[in-house]
Amino acid sequence: MSNTEKPVRAALVGAGGIAVYKHLPALYAHRDRIEIVGVAEPNAERLGTVADEWGIPGRYSTTEELLEAEKPDLLVVCTPPVAHRDAVIAGLQAGAWVWCEKPPMLSLSEYDEVAIYEGHEGPFASYVFQHRFGSAAQRLRRHLAEKTLGRPLVSVCHTLWFRTHEYYEVPWRGKWETEGGGPTMGHGIHQMDLLLEILGDWTEVTARADVQDRDLETEDVSMAMVKFSSGALASVVNSVVSPRETSYLRFDFQDATVEVEHVYGYDNTSWRWTPAPHLASESAEPSESWLPEENVPSSHIQQLDELLDAMEKNSRPRASGDDGRRVLEFIAALYESAETGRTVRRSDLKQSGPYYTGMHDPSHTYSLSPDNAATNRKRKNV
Fold first, then answer.
1. Region (Disordered) spans which residues (predicted)?
2. From CA 71, how far away is CA 75, in angstroms rounded?
3. How confident is the model over 192-220, as pLDDT tens digits?
4. Residue 345 lies in a domain
5. Do 168 and 89 lie in a common domain?
6. pTM of the model as a whole
7. Domain of 276, in residue numbers
8. Beta strands 97-100; 74-77: pairing state
9. From start to end of 14-172, where are the E strands?
């Protein structure tokens, strides 16, 4: 940024863990382009602690007070999912661009409602899908556009994480009304977004979701078989009951297999490229032939960099609009298939019904079997 350009005035709503460990470091990394002017947080003690630690002058208990006093250019929403809609709408109405944590909204209907408040040249609301923005993923996307790997054939998308019983003692977690779903909505959404970023439009999904071990309203495991418009097939698994945590995506093309394995973020070293046998002899070090020279990790920092560029140009950023809606639409279809026992086709999706106004039909219940619930009680008493 030149000396004549004013920094972007940024403010945060929510001062919890995601703000402290992800968003504030990302904002601070762009301190040559951003001035952090305020934060809103109803917990006064947390508000003071975080504001003191990061040197944030404006301190407010509500979003409305923050917007009225600071008039930020960029509002960063770090609240629990149930509060996303109101905070994003308030920011857009105040003329601020908005960057909101995942999941974007609790439903497709909420997402579409928010879009009404965007302008033709901004402000826009965009959402955190940082795994798209690492250099290796962006290079793979270019390979597909250039058709250098052949057609995509088979893919695997696994988010196998572990969350304790105590994790779900936080009142808003594991509930449809406040979190919008289980690991499908709150954890695997990043990997599924990257899957869709690489393979494009899906055409149908057949899924199963269940409660295996956690005492939740939502699922703690889901599995899906997916077909894409390219003809590619994918298996998708989301779990919060897997002790060895991994985030793993594999793409099998006609001419190569491309894999990435990490937990919460990758860089170029997390990726592996294996040429098909008919090409293997053409390169002694195949990985170097497709990985970019620049090693940019997947991160909030990199996504924010692109968002700031879009703000300068008054252009819609990636992970907003239809591009941000895509994975939410897929998740709604996955839940519909799991709860109805039917294959759901993208062409059959409607702008009405329980899977448009929510991710879940309230008539369908998830619960531990009596035997598993009894086993859990015994384990807790040991």
1. 341-382
2. 9
3. 999 999 999 999 999 999 999 999 999 99
4. yes
5. no
6. 0.94
7. 137-297+326-357
8. parallel
9. 34-40, 58-60, 74-77, 97-100, 125-127, 152-162
